[in-house]
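Please, structure for the following, as tokens.
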Amino acid sequence: MENQTTVTEFILMGLSSDPKLQVFLFLVFLVIYLITLMGNMLIMLVIRADPHLHTPMYFFLSNLSFVDLCYSSVTVPKMLVNFLSEQKTISIDSCLIQMFFFLASGTTEIFMLSAMAYDRYEAICHPLNYIQNMSKWVCIQLACGAWTIGFTVAVVNTFLVLRVHFCKFNKINHFCCEIPPVLHISCSDTLANEVVVLTSSVIVGLGSSSVIIVSYILIIATILRIRSTERRHKAFSTCGSHLTVVLLFYVTAFFKYLRPTSGSSFEKLVTVQYSILTPMLNPIIYSLKNKEVKTALRKVLGKTLCFPSTMVPK
């Protein structure tokens, strides 16, 4: 790619050009990033520490937290640096690396949510065979499948960007190297890239959303057949956190990638929603809506807070 272009680096325009606003945005996104790191790391720690959470549901939740850590860390650190820098540049190689991991993390998250929906389907619709149907090996296969699809989509789309020329413009009207705004400044014909991006978005979107929709149709049908109101409420409550996370992520992500235009302030905010805010909110949603996670959190935090007293000689 370097032999085909005179451009050696890009300039990320970011969310705002106002210096005072950039300082404020730096503080806001720093807090968001710290909450994201602490929240998702705490979820993984709690699931690992509590044997009661060593179940398929929490196996996928732990994987989701790790994906969220990766997703947020791909863009936010560079964004924070650029908020306080005069030269908001990124090399072409760094831009491609960021693009690759951004796509890989986002696509993996989509299919991890699908695996979680399938897990809820097995738990509610086939409770007697749940342990057998969602064995450790099956869970590992589903998680590995999500990661494999994520990296495959990222490889295909990033490889096609390698064939694009950047010979005049180098200002990306975005805060990260997402494919649509990068293609927008190319001096090559990017029709093939746009077709592949749209096609992969449709395939990924329809494939993952079909699993979720079908799973929840069957789940709702099963719950409605339960006579006990208490059991019905208990069954549906196990899906509440997952449904909330799905709506937060899918609506904004699909809206972004199914629209042909790029570069508007609104679209930047949409990207912030699904790639930065959602990874921060996921552990909060699961902590607030899930009694088992809240109980495990109290145990882990209680042991942590009590730990210093054990060091004091009697």
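Residues 8 and 92 are 6 Å apart (CA to CA). Strands lie at 9-12, 89-91, 171-172.
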